[in-house]
């Protein structure tokens, strides 16, 4: 019987099927946004920029080191008054333009090195500074300025790279990645909590996320492409793989398990006493 089946199948003409269209390319940045939302960012249901950090129209929110303005755009859409501060004038202007058609109560912009911040004491009810402390010369001075401009009871959302990811990049990243004005220090979990506590803030939560970005950055250095156009098979295949993982039945569980091992960032939510 087996030999008969072999003969029959061998002599049967091959089925002709139309060429399948190539799978759609996964946008690594949109996938990163999806991954971030699964980690607690940009919660539309309860109005939290990050888990434990609600933002309302009554808030005055200061973002120091605003970057591309993604965080403040979410907060502006909540109707909050927005104050942005960054050393890069181009980023400040781009963020200002990005916020121009939002329902923010107001938008105030500062180009500054934050030493000191040109903002009055007790101004903000919400203070955000993500991926900045690893760049600054004096973290204690920087944090003291953030604390000074916060109202009593203000909430703080602070993040720095997680040492697990930084250690992973050490022998692969371009040398300038760990040179001024980029990352001039690696901050451990205990050091981060100590910094925030020494500045006079009460740490409410400390979490980590970003396995996807840790691996993406590792492959980015190997691909040797431009960050603004990261077109390379290594990066494309990694994004496609991660999207497939997230879409799997236990994808989110797998994501959180990997985030706990190697994380791109660590996040502290803190409160100013008073």
UniProtKB/TrEMBL annotation:
GO molecular function, one term: S-adenosylmethionine-dependent methyltransferase activity
Classification via InterPro entries: Methyltransf_11, SAM-dependent_MTases_sf
EC number: 2.1.1.-
Record carries keyword Transport: no
Species of the source: Pseudomonas chlororaphis
Pfam families linked: Methyltransf_11 (PF08241)
Lineage: Bacteria, Pseudomonadati, Pseudomonadota, Gammaproteobacteria, Pseudomonadales
Protein name: SAM-dependent methyltransferase
Transferase listed as a keyword: yes
Top EC category: transferase
UniProt keyword list: Methyltransferase, Transferase
Domain Methyltransferase type intervals: 62-156
Gene Ontology BP annotations: methylation
């Amino acid at each position: 019987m087996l030999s008969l089946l072999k003969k029959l199948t061998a002599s049967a003409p091959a089925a002709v099927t139309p060429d399948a269209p190539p799978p759609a390319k996964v946008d690594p940045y949109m996938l990163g946004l999806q991954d971030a939302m699964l980690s607690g960012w940009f919660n539309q249901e309860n109005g939290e920029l990050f888990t434990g950090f609600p933002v309302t129209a009554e808030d005055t929110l200061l973002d120091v080191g605003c970057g591309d303005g993604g965080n403040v755009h979410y907060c502006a859409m909540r109707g909050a008054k927005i104050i942005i501060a960054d050393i890069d004038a181009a980023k400040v202007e781009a963020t200002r333009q990005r916020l121009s058609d939002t329902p923010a109560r107001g938008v105030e912009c500062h180009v500054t090195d934050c030493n000191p911040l040109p903002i009055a004491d007790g101004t903000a009810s919400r203070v955000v500074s993500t991926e900045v402390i690893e760049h600054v010369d004096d973290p204690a001075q920087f944090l003291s300025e953030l604390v000074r401009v916060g109202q009593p009871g203000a909430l703080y959302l602070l993040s720095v790279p997680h040492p697990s990811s930084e250690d992973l990049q050490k022998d692969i990243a371009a040398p300038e990645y760990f040179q001024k004005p980029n990352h001039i220090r690696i901050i451990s979990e205990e050091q981060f909590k100590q910094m925030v506590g020494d500045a006079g803030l009460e740490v409410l939560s400390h979490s980590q996320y970003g396995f996807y970005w840790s691996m993406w950055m590792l492959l980015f250095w190997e691909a040797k492409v431009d960050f603004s156009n990261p077109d390379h098979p290594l990066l494309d295949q990694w994004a496609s793989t991660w999207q497939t993982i997230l879409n799997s039945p236990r994808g989110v569980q797998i994501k959180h398990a990997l985030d706990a091992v190697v994380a791109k960032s660590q996040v502290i939510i803190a409160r100013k006493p008073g």
